[in-house]
Amino acid sequence: MFKTYEWMVALRYLKIRSNEGFVTLVALFSLLGIAIGVMVLIVTMSVMNGFREELLSKVIGFNGHMLYQPAGGRMSDYDDAAAKLKQINNVTKVLPIIEGHALATFGSYSVPALVRGVRADDLRQMTLISDNIKVGSLAEYGQGDNDIIIGKRLADKYDLGVGDLVTLVSPRGRITPFGTVPRIANYQIGAIFEVGEYNYDSSYFFMPLKQAQNYFQYGDEAGALEIILTHPDMITEMFDEVEQVTRQFGPGGRLIDWRILNQSFFNALQVERNVMFIILSFIILVAVFNIISTMIMMVKNKTRDVAILRTMGATSGSILRIFFIVGSCIGVLGTMLGTLMGLSIAYNVQSIMDFIEKWTGLSLWEGEIRFLSEVPSIVEPREIMIVVGMALILSFFATLLPAWRAAKLDPVKSMRYE
User: Which end is more exposed in the chain, N or C (fewer Cβ atoms within 10 Å of the end residue's Cβ)?
Assistant: First the structure.
């Protein structure tokens, strides 16, 4: 498609020359503009992907794939119900739980707490918790009468450790002739976990199911059943079958999955991701306009060369292809450079952040605001191809107009004053 002499002429035009310094400078800015746009898009999309996947893994690993809530928020035959659910293919675990809100106090500090009652064996099977115990262990969890497990963020913030006492105050207490008396109980910290999600590490408290039943006055009942599937993506195909079984547990119960529980949050993440892609794409678009201006100036400077080439027998198609090669090379080189820089940053974003924080003293990533303790990054090959393809296509289209104008130059008029 492209002849050898067309490549030779185009590459000569791309060489840096002292008498064409301004055009060369604009061409370099165009190349850097494309590179920066591609780099920013790759890094941003990778971080957004990592952010979503990390949050998704934390949410699913912490809460299960499905949640059955009985009518009235209590069920007494939870063991039989769990056994029936476990008979369904692809249902790996069913955990009876109790969740309630309380006020945790230690010393002069008080913080709101979400207390979750889970059996000792079930908690040990929750790998997100059991594999991330930072202080203490789960060996004696459930054997005492006052066990409790807290998150590392909370422990670090208030200087708590294993063996320290925590007082839980529940507004739902005993009803007396003088009104409702809050229920107060002391618990000893048995272990400290860190899953990497700020809310979980700072506000969740785990205690054995029996203790939660006593504390929240559930008797021998559970508050809900958490259902774990082989894979979270099986929700769609398994939902109807699981729901059919839960109907046997009595009317008024409700089955919900992780998508419903976190729908607004993950929808907001998806909208933000799409908007960021559109906004940052304008960086590439601006760089493409720079390519257009660069090519227009180059065509103007090379008018005499074009006229000579035409008189030597070069066709208008050859002239168009020569300038198309010049502009395309700027776009291709910029895209390649941006892709290399973007991938280098995306694969090492946490190390780069740590280096900048160390030398500047600035805190660039606040876990309290962004939920995760570290900057996540997942590179999706499909998205890289989309970004690269978009940059190349825009660069090629930006080159066509100036190249077409160069091909339409009249050699007679161009050489009239030479």
Answer: N
